[in-house]
C-alpha cells in the first residue's frame, strides 16, 4: 500500500453529513489520503462513518486513517491510525494490528518521540543455511574458505573455492575464465 503525499484531515466538527460531503469532494478532486480526526464522535458513530467511507476509498486506491482509534483499524474499518502523545504507544498498537496497518505518531516536543524500534538482525544466506541446517556452506572440502564470486539476477550466489590445492593458485586470467569473470 502506498501512502499518499496529501491527506485531507477532517476538522473535528462531528457533523456527519458535512464530513461525508467534504470527503466526497476531496476524493472527486483526486485526494487519496483521508484522516478522520473526529474526537467528538462516539465509537459507534466513528465505526459507521468509516464503514461507509472505506469501500469508496478502497475503490480509488486511497488510504483511510483515523485518529487515536486503533480498535477501528483492528476491526478492518480503516487502513491506519494516527496516535497522539496521550494515545496508545505505537509498539503496543503494532502488537495487535495487522502488519499492513499504517501507524502514525504525533509529537509536540522531542521528549514525546518514541524510542527507536530495534531492527532485527539481518542474516546473510550463508548464515541462514548454517542456522537452519547446521552446515557451513562456505567451508571447502580442501580446508579453505569459499567466497561469493558472482551474484546472479535471481539473487542466488555461486560458490567456488578460490584455489585448488593440488594445482596451486591459478593465474588471474585463468581464474577469471574458470569462475565466470570477464
Question: How would you portray this structure in words?
Answer:
The C terminus is likely disordered. This protein is elongated. The protein is 32% helix and 16% strand. With 182 residues, it is an alpha/beta fold. The chain has a 5-stranded parallel β-sheet with strand order 1-2-3-4-5. The chain has a two-stranded antiparallel ribbon with strand order 6-7. The chain folds into 2 domains: 106 residues, TIM Barrel, CATH 3.20.20; 54 residues, no CATH class. The protein contains 6 helices and 7 strands, in the order βαβαβαβαβαββα. β6 and β7 form a beta hairpin. The two termini are 41 Å apart.
Provide a brief overview of the structure:
The chain has 182 residues and is an alpha/beta fold. Helix content is 32%, strand content 16%.
Please list the strands of the largest sheet in the order they lie side by side.
1-2-3-4-5
Fraction of residues in H or I helices: 25-40%
Instruction: Name the helix and strand elements from N-terminus to C-terminus, one letter apiece.
Output: EHEHEHEHEHEEH
**Alpha carbon gyration radius:** 27 Å
Number of E strands: 7
Count of discrete alpha- or pi-helical segments spanning 4 or more residues: 6
β-strand percent reads 15-25%
How many domains in all? Answer: 2
Full CATH superfamily name of the largest domain: Aldolase class I
Mean pLDDT: 79
Tell the overall outline.
elongated
Uncertain runs with pLDDT below 50, 5 residues or more?
Answer: 151-157, 159-165, 167-182
The CATH level-2 architecture of the largest domain is identified as Alpha-Beta Barrel
CATH class designation of the largest domain: Alpha Beta
